[in-house]
Design brief:
Elements lengths: L8 E9 L9 E5 L15 E4 L5 H12 L8 E4 L2 H9 L5 E5 L2 H7 L3 E4 L1 H5 L5 E8 H6 L1 H20 L1 H12 L3 H6 L9
Parallel strand pairs: 3-4, 3-5
Antiparallel strand pairs: 1-7, 2-5, 2-6
Helix pairs in contact: 6-7
Amino acid sequence: TAVERGLPLQAVANGTSAPEEREDDPSALVTTEDAGIERPSDLEGTTVAVNALTSLPHVLAAAAIDADGGDPSQVTFVAMPFPDMASALDRGAVDAAAVVEPFYSETVSDGAKVITNLYTDVLDPGDSFTLVFTAGPFAERNPEIVEKFQRAVDRASLVAANEPHKVGEVLEEHGRLSPERFAQMRLPGYRMN
């Protein structure tokens, strides 16, 4: 969207990637057990919560519906913050929600049913789903800074991939996430640029 609006952005580093295995996927389309929704194409005629319209969860949810033979234009996507999705499901304000960690594990442990895992069912293993961007002119004027930043991100990705408990330590310190909550979470893939 930013590039379409003329902003000179340049991707400089991989943030996170689709995991190799579905059981490691930190994203999902979820619904309630009694909704009668078994697969993505069943979402036609329903309301689905996404964190923002045109966000990655929205785009992947629409792609999952389409890949399953459904018509995403027949789904009403509504934007709401991730923390509000579980209660919206419970009270019937939405029929399904596209959630990511740490909300995925919490929502599922509270009884939500997974319809599909978005990153592994739509993306190929290792595909980037978050990137770090900078302004193109900055990157052109400061290639050494961009290169140092890329190396730092690569080192952090290697640590995160090999020592996932350190991800939990950072989330506890900077994100106020409890160790118990982190222990339930599925982590994305971390790979070097």
